[in-house]
Amino acid sequence: FRLALIQLHVSTVKSDNLQRACGLVREASAKGAKLVALPECFNSPYGTQYFKEYAEKIPGESTQKLSEVAKECSIYLIGGRSIPEEDGGKLYNTCTVFGPDGALLAKHRKVHLFDINVPGKIQFKESETLSPGNSFSMFDTPYCKVGLGICYDMRFAEMAQIYGQKGCQLLIYPGAFNMTTGPAHWELLQRGRAVDNQLYVAAVSPARDEKASYVAWGHSTVVNPWGEVIAKAGAEETVVYTDIDLKKLAEIRQQIPILSQKRCDLYGVEMKK
User: Fold this and answer.
1) Is 249 left (phi over 0), alpha (psi -120 to 50) or beta?
2) pLDDT digits (tens, 9 = 90+) for 1-27
3) Do residues 56 and 62 make contact, with C-beta atoms less than 8 angstroms apart?
4) Alpha-carbon distance 202 to 127, whole Å?
5) What is the dihedral of CA 227, 233, 238, 244, to 10 degrees?
6) Which residue pairs from 265-270 have beta carbons closer than 8 angstroms and sit at least 24 positions apart in sequence?
7) CATH 3.60.110.10: does it fit domain 2-253?
C-alpha cells in the first residue's frame, strides 16, 4: 500500500495551515496514497508560547476538518500533532487518526515530553505547558497494524519494542526535530527502531522555516525493516510517497529471525498499562 508523508510549511495562521494541509491530503489521495500522515504541529507553530493560544478540544475545528477530508478521500489520515489538546484544564501534544469513514480511530498523547538542554545550542521544556500522555496508541487497517509516537517518543526504544510485540508492522512518528538534534539523530533513530524491531518506520516533519522561533529539521523519512532509507524529503514543503511492502518485511523476519530468538528467560520489556 502507498504511504504519503506531508511535509507542510506551517504559518502562524491556523486557517491557512488547515486549508493547505487538507489540499495536500487530497493531492496525496489522488496519487494513490491509502495512508497519509501530517507532521507534528501542523496547525500551529511549535513553541511553548503558542500551545495555549492554539489549543482546542477534541472534537474541535482542526479534528473536524481532518475527519471530513479523511472521509472525502476514503483514506486513513494521521493528523500529526494536529493540535495542542485542551482537556480538563491540561494541555497535551496530541495526534489523532481518522479512518476512511471519518471516524476517530486513535488519539495519541505524547508520552515523553521534550525537556532538553544542550548548552550553547538549544534549550526547550515542553513540560512548562504540556502534560504527558499515559498510554500506547495503535490502530488496525486492512493493510497492517500501525503504532503511533510523537517526536521525542522515538528516542525510547522500549516503546517501539512494545508496538512490535503487539503486532505493529509500521510505526509512524509525527515529529519536529530541530537544527541541533535533526542532523545528529533524526535518521539514526528511525533506522535503529526499524532494524531492532524489523518493521517499517516513518517520521514526518514540518518543512523548515528559517524565520521561525523553532526551526524544524525537515527531511521526512521512511525506513524499511532492513534499516534502509527508502524515501526522504529535503527541507522544503513537499509530499513524500513510498510503497510499503509487507512481503519484504516477512522475508527479512524469516532470514534473520531475531523476534523468535529473544532470550525471554533472561530479559524482557512489558507494557504496564
Assistant:
1) alpha
2) 999 999 999 998 999 999 999 999 999
3) yes
4) 25
5) -20
6) 269/158, 269/161, 269/162, 269/165, 270/162
7) yes
Instruction: Give the C-alpha separation, 168 to 155, whole Å.
Output: 18
In tens, the pLDDT along 90-132 reads: 999 999 999 999 999 999 999 999 888 888 888 888 888 899 9
For the question of residue 151 being annotated catalytic, the response is yes
* pLDDT at 171 (0 to 100): 98
Angle of helix 187-197 relative to helix 157-165, nearest 10 degrees? 40
Strand (E) or helix (H) holding 105 = strand 104-109
Whether 136 contacts 176, CB under 8 Å? no
| CB atoms closer than 10 angstroms to residue 123 | 10
List 34, 110, 168, 237, catalytic entry: 110
Over residues 254-270, mean pLDDT: 95
φ and ψ at residue 30, rounded to 5 degrees: -65, -25
The residue from 14, 22, 40, 41 that is catalytic is 40
Catalytic pick from 22, 73, 95, 151? Answer: 151
- Please report which confidence band the pLDDT of residue 149 belongs to, taking 50, 70 and 90 as the band edges: very high
Domain assignments of the chain as residue spans, ordered by start: 2-253
* Catalytic site includes residue 272: no
Residue type, 164: G
Q: Where is average pLDDT lowest: 5-19, 51-65, 80-94?
A: 80-94
State the CB neighbour count (10 A cutoff) for residue 68.
Answer: 13
What percent of the chain is helix, strand and coil (3-state, nearest 5)? 30, 25, 40
**Catalytic: 40?**
yes
